[in-house]
Write a structure and sequence with these properties.
Helix content: 55-70%
Shape: elongated
Strand content: under 5%
Number of domains: 2
Largest sheet: none
Order of helices and strands: HHHHHHHH
Length: 247
């Protein structure tokens, strides 16, 4: 009976580690996609240090889980006590790190509010000055997502216009509609857009557009994170039970 129980535990351990392996692969792939994706997500991540750090943490965690799941599968099948102990300690550290990251994300969630981005935009944005990293990033985001400002074009009313501009409250060029949503895309009607013709402007705020774009992925990432944490917890329990059961 004890041998059957040990054998069952071994295969359950293998199963849980296989799921950890898959979860790590998913997080690794998601992290790489967010960082290297050319369609604008990289610019959004770069616009906020918290998101930028989070993307790399996700990448690192995915790589570690990927490796850990592989090692855990080998340790369970071979019934190696040393490997199982190493696995338990390593996965415990990762579990605590992920838990800490989740707590920090909850604490600093106010840094991702509409008011925060609006304040930062009005404080640092320099319109079409692409030599400024902050301004260039915002311009890329607005062009990619066909949006304007955080809440809409009204965000730019308090931002000084360029010295050579004859328009007191001209919106930046990045808010003008383009045939293709990229810097290479031709303007639909740049002159009328800058004169205030709403027909040729992107009127929707970027906060709403991006939030809608990411809503599905946020829930998916949250569900995946909860699933990975639960699997890690069970894997630790089975690893210790298997460790104690091996003669």
């Amino acid at each position: 009976m004890e041998g059957d129980c040990l054998s069952c535990m071994k295969y359950l351990m293998f199963l849980f580690n296989f799921f950890i392996f898959l979860g790590g692969a998913c997080l690794l792939g998601l992290g790489i996609w967010v960082i290297v994706d050319p369609t604008g997500f990289r610019e959004i991540v770069a616009a906020n240090p918290l998101l930028f750090t989070g993307a790399y943490i996700m990448l690192a965690m995915g790589a570690m889980l990927f490796l850990l799941g592989f090692l855990g599968c080998c340790g369970a099948i071979r019934e190696n006590k040393c490997l199982l102990l190493f696995f338990f300690m390593f996965i415990l550290l990762i579990f605590l790190a992920e838990l800490s990251a989740a707590i920090l994300a909850f604490i600093f969630r106010e840094n991702l509010t509409r008011e925060f981005f609006t304040k930062e935009l009005k404080k640092h944005y320099q319109r079409n000055n692409d030599t400024d990293v902050f301004s260039a990033t915002w311009n890329s985001v607005m062009i990619t997502f066909a949006c304007c400002g955080v809440n809409g074009p009204e965000d730019f009313e308090a931002i000084p216009h360029l010295p050579h501009s004859s328009l007191e409250k001209a919106i930046p060029e990045a808010c003008c509609q383009r045939e293709l949503q990229s810097r290479e895309g031709m303007f639909v009607n740049k002159e009328d857009c800058l004169k205030g013709n709403e027909r040729f402007q992107n009127r929707q705020g970027c906060y709403t557009v991006i939030l809608n774009s990411f809503e599905t992925y946020v829930y998916l990432a949250g569900a995946l994170a909860i699933g990975v944490l639960a699997i890690e917890l069970f894997a630790m329990i089975f690893a210790m039970c298997l460790f104690r059961g091996i003669q």
